[in-house]
Amino acid sequence: MGMQPTIWVCGLALAWAAAETDNRSPLADYYGFQPLEIFKLSERAGSLLAGDFNHDGRTDVVLVNNANHRLDLLLQRPAAPMHADRPLSAGANALTDHWRFEPVKLPVDELIAALAVGDFNHDGRDDLAYFVLPDELVVRYQSASGTWSETLQLRLPDILPTQWCLAAGDMNHDGADDLVVLGKRDTVLLYQQPQGGFGVPLRLMNTSDKLGLAQVADLDGDGRLDLCYVAGEAANRMLGVRLQDARGRLGPEFIFDLERPRSVTIKELDGQPGSELLTIDSRTGRLKILKVEFAPLGAGELPEQLVRYGFGAAGSAREREWALGDFDADGRQDVVVSDPDASQVLWFRQGGERGLDLALPFPSLAGADGLRPWTATGVAGQALVVHSSTEKTIGVSRWKNGRFLFPEALPIDLEPAGVEVLDVTGDGQPEIVFLARGKKGKDPEFSLWAYRRNAADTGWEAVPGYGGPTEGGGPAQGSPLSVKSAPERLWAADVTGDARPELLLLQGNKPPVVLQFVEGGALTEVTVTGALGSGSVSGQAWFPARWHDTSGLLIPQDNFVRLMTVGSEKRWQVVEQFNVSEGGAQIVGGALLQLEPGGEPELALVDSGVKKLRLYRGGHVPWKELDLGDFDFLSAAVSDLNGDGRDDLALLGGKQLAVLYSSGLSPRVRELAAFETPLEKTFLSDVAAGDVNGDGRVDLVLTDTRSHFIEILQYRPPSQLRHATYFKLFEEKSFTGGDTPVGEPREVLLADVTGDGRVDLLVLAHDRLLLYPQDPGGEPLPR
């Protein structure tokens, strides 16, 4: 026989009401709980977690109690004590805390934002970690005597102190619990050390400044714990995932659009490798069970997701620059991005088939706004040329002993305006080329200079004709130009089809000044007529491309992109135009690349209007769309970034670098099941997973904050979800017609806190903790 729900009513109108007859599920008989147990806390109690907090083998409970500046430990008792506990309230209807838990109070001095449980000193005992306002992480260790006096305090600035910004788990696969803290700009990792304590905080640069709901789980089924969190504002919230690799390191970020999730819970449901995602869609109120899958790309396939690499602090996002090159001389292309406000550069080293590694920062010039790779004669790898408008200098940074050296400044007493690397002498060795700003009377004037290493490789020298020695021994001077204002940047690109790049002086959205090599080898300013029509798009977003044997610039505008070239009449001409017909399209960037071997190249368009990366076969045939999210696009580049010999697409944004790899593993989210509650006037707020009827299978428990229901679902993998039963937690007077969610219950926890081996239901509502012990009676549910 199945068991009927037990009805228990108290004077505070907290009740478990049986399901109404016309809504009763045939599964209801297989779910039930013993009489309700109540524990008085406070309205500000939260962060409900389970653990063994006196090392007796029983599961206890801990909560944050900010109303009283303390942590409340509720230690599970094996039996009722000899003396009754204090009443919950005075008067005729006074209630007494149930005997189940022994309360232990741990005082704290500041308000607690987040709480986590783990063994943080590898002694086999559960410890507590919490983040207190404004900027301190505290770890309290459980001693053998049951005291909590040993503590570790660590100041962590730039943390956004939200309730679930802290998580614990083995983040490097060494068997010890580590800590993860979500910051405003970085995610902080504290790895437990073999000799005890935590190591120096390791910071992973975020792609968003609004991360929350940190969770640790094995998402890809490899036996290693991964980091998951939500990113972005409520209306554009997405799931961020960093997978732990075979080296025990967290990798770059994958972003999955979960369609505005109201809540995200990660649990193992089906006994198969890899945890599942439980989400409640904020638009429909439906529960969804999702699975993140990683599969090798087949022929003609592209990934479902871009791989994201964060920059941390946003700073002067529009001033960001980048360079691609083999900077550590390992034969692979790396990426370096400037961080102007932090006076550093970020190096993304290529690790072969795994792609780019996370950023490593190195000190550099303040306000760096120009980066270029430079190859020295007879030297393996490339050096990094750095231009700084702030410091009014150009420096060269070399790779040595596993790091970038601080840039060596060129010996110039000039104010440089932009930098490029270009072979101006025709000897096959590129020089460092820049504009120098001067004055002629009250008007500014500009000249072109070029520097190279001297023959003895002991220093730098100016190139003749570009600031080098003159025949008459006169003062050094650069090649004069007619431009009257500083360019946005210098850029070498072939726009005439003569197989030798021109030097372009980009001037925002104005047509660039073109310098072309003429007979004799000198760079000479060429008058080019016609307009580019780039609208408000910066020249940084232009892309040098080659299409059907024609070289030019891919320039985005409105809902199209044009390939522009300088014709024989020295006039800008449209070679090809690629249109997007969708009404909301706003193309801000484009690139041509060879994603599939052979055939015509593919066209990639960055569409900020619909927040998509659009891919076209042969330039015109729609192929695939990938989610961009909130991506502040600056520039695009094409290179082999995972060592497979094929083109990959890199997108530079203000806060992140995004890469589309043409081979490797492709992550995608697959929907396993969806459920719409049959209950009326509900606002599903959260979901928990556990075996709440003792049949050995995971059930789902939904919380509703409008009518205050608890709804239980039976789950049969992979896709069967069935309403089993529900009950009302409490009645509440409402002056809004009962249609407005009030936020109660606010938390739910499934854990065996009665010591019978069965999962119990704990609900936090108002100033009460409600415990529904699982009823052990009844026959098992047929499978």
UniProtKB/TrEMBL annotation:
Keywords: Signal. InterPro entries: FG-GAP (IPR013517), Integrin_alpha_N (IPR028994). Pfam families: FG-GAP_3. This is VCBS repeat-containing protein. It comes from Schlesneria paludicola.
